[in-house]
Design brief:
- The protein has 291 residues and is mainly alpha-helical.
- It contains 11 helices and 4 strands.
- Strands 1-3 form a two-stranded antiparallel ribbon.
- α7 packs parallel to α9.
- The N and C termini lie far apart (57 Å).
Length: 291
Amino acid sequence: MATKAPRSDAFSKKTTNRRGRNQHSSSFLIQKCVEIEALPALNDTPPDQQEALLLRKLQQCSIIFDFSDAMLDVKSKEVKRACLNELIEYISCDNSMTERVYPEVVQMVSQNLLRTLSPSDNVDYDPEEDEPTLELAWPHLQLVYEFFLRFLESVKFQPTIAKRYIDTKFVLHLLELFDSEDPRERDLLKTTLHRVYGKFLGLRGFIRKQVNNMFLRFVYESERLNGVSELLEMLGRIITGFVLPLKDEHKLFVQKVLLPLHIPVKSLSLYHAQNSVLVGTASQVRSWINL
């Protein structure tokens, strides 16, 4: 069924048998008997009417479908999939976007992506032994991620307008998704967060602080974070962008966060490759600050 949600935000090896790959869908509020019909194509619409149609399509794509039953809302799911593909093509052509478009884009992205992750089907989940649980709604989620990335990368994108809607609350919800078991989602999240970091200077310090907190909890408390390798890759890109002389904040970032990540933890093997790259980068940074 469908709903339009309310507006929003091991080094040790197990001896158990390897579990098969599971699929589940994140938690959504479901409203019964909602159907959508295909709207006219944007390219077939007069230019002076395209923005109004674009807004309608964004609102249509904010409707969430239940993927736990493959037989439910088959036609409407396909209409949304086709609409998302059309939006990706439209935004990739660098069409102009007025301020009216920005809140609708962020709203649509938030409705689809910034959701509550379902608890793991396996409380003893071991990434080294068990297959990840894949997101059933991925046919739509992947397209929403791709659309949002094209939106951020558009030459017509205006950060001064977007920052009113892409704020700290949005970023916090985005970071929570790094605990998704689905590696496909974490890979796109890594790129998405890095684009947000690059586009919004005012959010950079906040993003670094929140990632710092995530890694500190990982190292000293839980030792569990599904997206540790993806976050490490993003951190590697960030610290190579530090300029000399380093700010005190950046020095503390290296000393208090990056270096402690090198201490042995039971899940170190899960991000060994990414950690090796980060170690090399951190070693260079360490020489900069004479650690």
